[in-house]
Amino acid sequence: MKNYYIIDFDSTFTQVEALDELAKISLEHHPDREKIYLEIERYTNLAMEGKLSFREALAGRVQLLQANKSHLDKLITHLKKKVSTSFSRNREFFKKNSDTAWIVSGGFKEFITPVVIPYNIKKENIYANTFIFDEHDNIIGFDESNPLSDEGGKVKLLQELKIDGTIYGIGDGYSDFQLKESGLIEKFFAFTENISRKTVTEKADFITPSFDEFLYVNNLPRAISYPKNRILCLIVGEVPEIASHILKRDGFSVRTKDTFEEKYTKDVGMLLLGKDISVSEDQLSRADKLKTIGVLGDAKNHLNKDICNAKGIVVFDDKKDKKRNAEFIPRRMADFINNGDTYMSRNFPNLLLPKVKDVTRLLHIHKNVPGIMAQINLVYAQNDINIISQFLMTKADIGYAVTDIKGEYDRDLIKQLKKVQNTIKFRILY
């Protein structure tokens, strides 16, 4: 049996609620626009939380829009820039699953279709409402015969379609949960990258903070090997808010604390320290998941460099106390996690890597000893791996090798690379 993926549009595939955005466009010059915006938003939230029938909420919003086709053109341009980050980077999934990745939405085809078609989603696999226009291209209503315009519309649609396969639902609203409640789908994933509704998350099979997480949990092809929302980034001390904003926007799970609390030691993946914050040698030696540390100040005397090197922890710091480094340091940390860049690192060889598509990027951190690259490349050769590019730099006792490979590989390859003598840390980047 095939697996089918039923994906919501508003606040799931895109970061926003399209009708709310359409209202901002169509009512831009209306004297009571702020009042109307709030009323449309109220309808949206009531429907998404299951407190108002979908038909009532839809009719109420459409009536307030005062929109026409020219407004829709502007909306489409806007929505194309608002595709959710984790969906945008996983275009390859839709290409490989073009027959079974469907958009099912209470929104409208007039703006959904042009936004999702570039992602290899087939037109016939887009299920949504349609507007009714008057002779002057003004929106005056919607097709009420469409099951998606009614309460429980997604349930009614799937009952009509009689899909022969295992169905997974992904969405942020109550109408998405109704699919699970009806028994028509195998599992419901509450998508919370853009908004989290308690009435939905408490009933979901899984809470998925990103599409990467959904793909990871279901062992499906994905742009990055490990969801960034699973990487805990701990910010300690006085750090400007912009740093937290940058890391959250990139998808990391961020916690802000006054001190490096013991409970985070074993789970922290990224650590950003305010000026004059130190980390004890004991905690540093036990932080086995820690990949990178950023310091808004000079790292000297606040971190044990030898322990960082021994554990393969890349350090970025701010020796000159420049104001811009509240943004620069977290971006360097994110670039290391995302692309493998070590440029401007305090303790690692400096590499600024090209971003390559359609490859698997493997990072190998090792002791800088003679013959280790020969051992690494022997593993690749014995596994018939097609190497597209390889980058190697050393600094003192650290060696850093980045290898881009093409095609399928046996999972045993990873085990073999981790077992190469003098390996410090190994990571599949994407």
From TrEMBL:
Domain Acetolactate synthase small subunit-like ACT: 362-425
Catalytic activity entry: O-phospho-L-serine + H2O = L-serine + phosphate; O-phospho-D-serine + H2O = D-serine + phosphate
EC annotation from Swiss-Prot or TrEMBL: 3.1.3.3
Signal sequence segment: none
Membrane-spanning parts: none
SUPFAM superfamilies attached to this UniProt entry: ACT-like, Formate/glycerate dehydrogenase catalytic domain-like, HAD-like
CDD domains: ACT_3PGDH (cd04901)
UniProt KW keywords: Amino-acid biosynthesis, Hydrolase, Magnesium, Metal-binding, Serine biosynthesis
Cofactor(s) required for function per UniProt: Mg(2+)
InterPro entries given in the database record: ACT-like_dom_sf, AHAS_small-like_ACT, HAD-like_SerB, HAD-like_sf, HAD_sf
Name of a matching Pfam family: HAD
Pathway: Amino-acid biosynthesis; L-serine biosynthesis; L-serine from 3-phospho-D-glycerate: step 3/3
PANTHER family for the chain: PHOSPHOSERINE PHOSPHATASE
Official protein name in the record: phosphoserine phosphatase
Species of provenance: Sphingobacterium kitahiroshimense
